[in-house]
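Name: Lipoprotein
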Amino acid sequence: MRKVFALLTIFAVLACDKKQDRSPTASTDNLKRSNERTETKQESFSTEVALKKTNDEILQALKVNFYDVFAKYIHPQKGIRFSMYAFVNKTEDKHFSRADFEKYYPTKTIFTWGSRDGSGEIYKATIDQYMKNWVFKKDFTKSEYAYNKFLGNGNSLNNLKEIYPSTNFTENYISGSEKSSGMDWNALRFVFEEFEGKYYLVAVINDEWTI
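Structure predicted for Lipoprotein:
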């Protein structure tokens, strides 16, 4: 009799465990992505503090290739321009509205982004390729940060302040190596404009030593 009672107890425990195993797991749709854009109004902070926070959020989104998150920072009306080098060329640099960026970043559509320094070769790539291989060519989450100041200074004409005179910008700078006499430095700049109490990207500018 005792043996029968013991067996019944074991079966009851196992049945309970199986019932618990069948409980539904949490849906990823209900989990907030850690680097989604925060919706805090920028006037809650000083401009400098707000842009440092926004700058870091954008870098995190780029690092993990969350281009849907990155798109939330694009200016809703003016869109965004990508410049391969410090010199901003309004006629050649690639420009997207937010809607077009969101439409094309998952696709294999090839775009012309500009021309390579030195060779003059036309640079063509998908949005995904350009973001990974050019914009975020180095891990800028580990870079030196500056607000409205240039840390990287090369021999390429830097006309950011002329093209975007009434804006604020951030720079993420990685110094060059001793092996290359410091000439292999890289900088990634974000240019912001305010819209309805928040700062949005109007330009992403890469910079490096040019020939």
